[in-house]
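Chain A, query sequence.
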Amino acid sequence: RTPARATAVPPGASTAGGHSHGPGDRPRTERFTSRNPDEFGVPTGREEEWRFTPLARMRALLEPFDASSPLAVETSAPDQVEIREVAGDAEPIGSVLAPADRVSALAMHRVRRAHVVTVPKGTTLADPVTITLRGGGETAYAHLFVDVQPFAEAVVVLDHVGSATLAANVEMRVGDGASLTLVSVQDWAADAVHVAAHAAELGRDSRLKHAVVTFGGDLVRVSPTVRYTAPGGDAELLGLSFADAGQHQEARLYVDHAVPHCRSRVTYKGALQGRDAHTVWIGDVRIRATGVQTDTYELNRNLLLTDGARADSVPNLEIETGEVAGAGHASATGRFDDQQLFYLMARGIPEIEARRLVVRGFFADVINQLGVPAVADRLTAAVEAELAAVGV
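Chain A, predicted structure.
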């Protein structure tokens, strides 16, 4: 387990920058972003942002490729929602997300078509919007923009199935007083490779619930980013993953508190079983000097079900002001709690069933927080199937 790091930075030590700073002239704490892939260079694995990632398994995404065969996109939405397909460089593409790595920049630079989902002002959707990306072995780019206009409420489920090598960007604009729940499910076939950047922009008194759920795929790396534009924004970032033998599942989060009186909560949980099952969670929260009265907490828990699995967990807090409502983080990786097992078995529950109950309880709070019954039922069934596969 990698130890947590927290850094307090004097208010004058860094500056809030724009979307692009050269690697040599940006402040130590500023993220480098650019829409030009060449400004990143090809990663070698020695870079901090790539040191956990098995680059050889995603090499096809590190260089430009012909994106003439996009994934099949299936959509389902209530009548009030507008879903349209636009050119990859049309408005509003790129207005929320500033690429922070080479794969995201390549995907934004080279994607030919993007999908824009618009929920009109003041609309409350009775049913979720469902967008399914179905792979048939393609190497592809994809881009989704979700625009929830002021005082609207929506649930969007982004589903990934089949087989593909995919570089994708997802942008979310949540207007003043609006609410968005977005659940991204990675239920790929065993050979899929998926690298994605998600970015959310929150308006005044807006609410975002963002969930990343990963079961399938050979390598899946999702990097969510949250930025606040006005006070009162509230972001809840949830994650649930189950890694089997040989799978690499990685989540890299960045929450940028640059305005006053905003809140964020991060809860990611992962279970691992099988040799070389590997999960990575990086949680970066920055509270700028202007982000007074920020309330933030991030939590990562990992449960190792068998020998040979590895979980890396690195929570980071960077605080530039002493005027915070609350800021903290916690991280733990371990095996079954022997006391829990003893308690259950002492009441006549067989060991295998007791172990399953512990795992169900481990995931239950995240699943219950999703607030999307159809997805919750599906995830519960997926957890049961994973446990049955190895006799846990």
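The two ends are 24 Å apart (CA to CA). Residues 183 and 211 are 5 Å apart (CA to CA).
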